[in-house]
Sequence to fold (167 residues):
Amino acid sequence: MIINVLLALMIVISFLLAIVLHEWAHAQVASWLGDHTPRLEGRQTLSLRAHLDPVGLVMCLILAFQPLLLAVPPAGLGWGKPVKPDPWKMRVPADTGVLLVACAGLIFSLIIGLLAAVLFRFLDPILDSSFFALVLRQWVVVFASVNISLALFNLIPLYPLDGYQIL
Fold:
């Protein structure tokens, strides 16, 4: 039971970090392309408050902790507040700008997930078998999985996912 609670907490914390990094990447690329709308809306920050959607957070919490009652492994699914750049303010053609901003979140989530997986590969042999080391190992794996899953899930071509913008 305590293991499932720990795993659910790891999922929620990883999800919150992944959403912030994913949405920040969208805002950063939009800004680099000349659109200052995300910065004016306060989205070009690593603050959790700027990127959090209350309904998406509640959904993640429910799905992460609800399986504790059903004796199945926890899972998390939620969403953040999407960054809405103005393609007409970018220095590149509108279609190109939308494509680059949409790909930014996917690519950044994938890179973060792969870096966490590589970190796990190097951490695993050097950490001892204490409780803290085991929790750290598990959290790095969960964080990598959440980021890679976020990137793959956002490839689905349904609005408002990034796959829709790419398509």
About this structure: The radius of gyration is 17 Å. Residues 2-82+90-166 form one domain. DSSP finds eight helices and no strands in the chain. The mean pLDDT is 86.
